[in-house]
Structures are given as structure tokens and as C-alpha cells.
Design goal:
The chain is built from ten helices and 19 strands. By secondary structure, it is an alpha+beta fold. Strands 1, 4, 5, 8, 14, 15, 16, 17 and 19 form a nine-stranded antiparallel beta sheet that branches. The protein has an eight-stranded antiparallel beta sheet with strand order 2-7-18-9-10-11-13-12. The N terminus is likely disordered. Bound molecules: 2-acetamido-2-deoxy-beta-D-glucopyranose (2 copies).
């Protein structure tokens, strides 16, 4: 009986795998849901940024986090001049209480943090099991690059140099032990994927699908005519087979995705400077003044555009037949 039942489960799992593409909704996060179902991570920034991540009560008291019926705003402090010997600029990092294995996550964003020194991210990991649990960076931008989508994992994993994606691969080694933690990054093909151009169009949508056979990331600007209606309407089910060629595609051909990833939480953060945006080459290539840390310390009002305005995050957790 035991054997028969598990055989049936294995067979149905295999059948469902072949139907990947149609998913039904698991969790919807809008406005207050982020306060109730996500944790504020008041921790030292693991990426060494010039920020101090605050807890929820401080974030609300200082209006660094604000929710309404259809909006989540998260921002960095834009009023305080910092002492160079003191703590970094107050900012926010939040993490979904729920962790997800195979799933589709979609995000409808009106505005993302922009400007010199800013490094906002919307990403997934298990931060108590990094890098063994894997990491997918869906949105990760500094002040100059287009959005960089990447995987960072803890063991052998590489990507074919030619694959079905519209973005441009930067590196095909995803193993942090051999790639210096640069990840296997893919640049989005358009500048409206990040910062000023993203924001002036009214933002847009990102979506990520993770199955045992591939991780795929798509992006549509608010004004794109090709945005799928199931995605933009926040439908209760979505069919990723109709979403077209992804901006970034990470197949399992030379990477056992089922072993390099475990369940991941979803994270939003806004850091400043740090391991990527604070590299002097990255910072000065963006035409930014002086040094990154001095700039953050001395120019609070320049961070008034360093905010996320999020309409919704939806997570589709069940693969279903159509
Ligand atoms: C808090 O931020 C929201 C969103 O930007 C804004 O509408 C509101 O006026 C702010 N509240 C205060 C007290 O500044
Ligand atoms: C995250 O990693 C920790 C440490 O290995 C583990 O205890 C926990 O179960 C993991 N969380 C999930 C959701 O897999």
C-alpha cells in the first residue's frame, strides 16, 4: 500500500512536471499584507552597504515604510546628514515569512529606487542557508547597468553560452566558489528595466518561474503592449507558456537546479554602496561624485527617489493542468 501510494505520487509528480506552464495562485501580497506576512530584517547588511536596516516599528514611525489599500512604499531616510564614524543611512529590508520551492512570482512595481549609490534588489534566497539554498536575483540594479538577473549557488552549476533569452549573459558560472560570487548574470536588453527609464514609464512587471528544469525571468515595462493579460490583471492562474522568450533563462542542462536550490524566501531591500554599487569602478562609471560612502553621508536629499512603490507581489505555487 505504502509502495503503491508513493508510486502514484511519483507518477503524478512527473505528469505535473510536463504540464509546467500553468500555475494557480498561492499567496497575494498587497499593502498591509507586507506588514503582516513579511519580516523586517533589522540586521547588518550582508553586502556591506552604508545602511542601517531598521525594524518595523522604526520603519513605520519614520515613514520609511508606508502601506495603503493598494500600495507598499519602502524608502531610505532622506533627511539625516550622517557622521562618517557613525551608522549607515536608515533603510528597509523585508522578507516573506513563507518560503517557496517551485513557483512563479510576479511583481507589479510603480517605482524602484534610483540614483547614485543606490542598489535596490528584489530577490530570493534562504538567508540562513546561503549559498546552499541558492539565490535568484530578479531585480538587482546599481546606478548605471541595466537590470542584472542572476543565480548564485553553492556548487557546480553553469549555463550554456547560447540559450533562449533576450538578455545578454555576462558570465555563465553560477557557483560562488569559483566565480568570486559574481553569479551567472544576464543583463536585461532594455534600459527601461531599471532606474530612471523604468520609473518614468510608470514601472512595470517582473516575473520569475522556478521549476526543476529552468529558472526564467521576464520583464515588461508599463507601456509595453505585449504584457500578458493574466500577469497584468493578477489573475488567479497564469500560463507562462504564453509569456514569450524570457529576458533571462537558466536551464538545468549543466546545473542540477533541484539540488542547488531549496525553498527560498522573497526579499526586498535597498542598500547603498556595498559590495557592488560601492565598487569605485561601478560608482564612478555612473558619473557619481566623490566617493560612494561620503556621498551617502552628506547628501540626504539626493535619496528622495530611493524608494520602492509596489502594487502587488503574487506567488503561484501549484502547477495545474489547463
Ligand atoms: C508617508 O509616506 C507616504 C507615501 O509616500 C505619504 O503619502 C505620506 O504623506 C507620508 N506621511 C507622512 C506623515 O509624512
Ligand atoms: C533555511 O535554512 C535553514 C538552515 O539550513 C533551515 O533550517 C531551514 O529549514 C531552511 N528554510 C527552508 C524554508 O528551507
Amino acid at each position: 500500500m505504502q509502495f503503491t501510494l508513493s508510486s502514484v505520487l511519483v507518477i503524478s509528480a512527473v505528469v505535473l512536471e510536463t504540464l509546467a506552464g500553468t500555475w494557480s495562485i498561492g499567496d497575494t501580497y498587497i499593502g498591509q499584507d507586507f506588514m503582516n506576512s513579511w519580516a523586517f530584517e533589522a540586521e547588518a547588511d550582508p553586502t556591506g552597504g552604508r545602511v542601517t536596516y531598521v525594524d518595523q516599528s522604526t520603519a513605520v514611525a519614520d515613514n520609511l515604510t508606508y502601506v495603503s489599500s493598494d500600495t507598499l512604499i519602502m524608502r531610505v531616510d532622506d533627511t539625516t546628514v550622517l557622521s562618517s564614524s557613525g551608522a549607515g543611512r536608515n533603510s528597509v529590508r523585508i522578507k516573506s515569512n513563507t518560503a517557496y520551492d517551485y513557483h512563479v512570482v510576479t511583481i507589479d512595481v510603480r517605482h524602484m529606487p534610483e540614483g547614485c549609490a543606490t542598489w535596490p534588489a528584489f530577490w530570493e534566497t534562504n538567508d540562513s542557508d546561503w549559498p546552499s539554498g541558492g539565490e535568484v536575483d530578479i531585480v538587482s540594479v546599481n546606478s548605471v547597468s541595466p537590470n542584472l538577473v542572476s543565480l548564485h549557488v553553492g556548487s557546480t552549476c553553469s549555463m550554456p553560452s547560447s540559450r533562449a533569452e533576450s538578455g545578454t549573459p555576462q558570465s555563465n558560472d553560477c557557483n560562488i566558489n569559483t566565480d568570486g560570487n559574481s553569479g551567472c548574470g544576464v543583463e536585461n536588453p532594455t534600459t527601461n528595466s531599471f532606474g530612471p527609464d523604468f520609473n518614468s514609464a510608470g514601472g512595470g512587471w517582473y516575473a520569475m518561474e522556478r521549476t526543476s528544469s529552468a529558472v526564467s525571468v521576464w520583464f515588461w515595462s508599463r507601456t509595453d503592449s505585449s504584457v500578458p493579460s493574466d500577469l497584468s490583471s493578477g489573475a488567479s492562474s497564469v500560463n507562462t507558456d504564453n509569456w514569450g522568450t524570457p529576458a533571462a533563462y537558466f536551464p538545468n542542462t549543466d546545473c542540477d537546479l533541484s539540488s542547488v536550490f531549496s525553498s527560498n524566501n522573497i526579499i526586498f531591500d535597498i542598500t547603498l554602496c556595498g559590495d557592488w554599487a560601492g565598487q569605485s569602478s561601478v560608482y564612478s562609471n555612473a558619473g557619481c561624485p566623490g566617493t560612494c560612502v561620503d556621498y551617502v553621508n552628506s547628501n540626504p536629499s539626493d535619496f528622495s527617489n530611493a524608494y520602492w512603490d509596489v502594487a502587488a507581489v503574487r506567488v503561484y505555487t501549484t502547477e495545474t493542468s489547463s
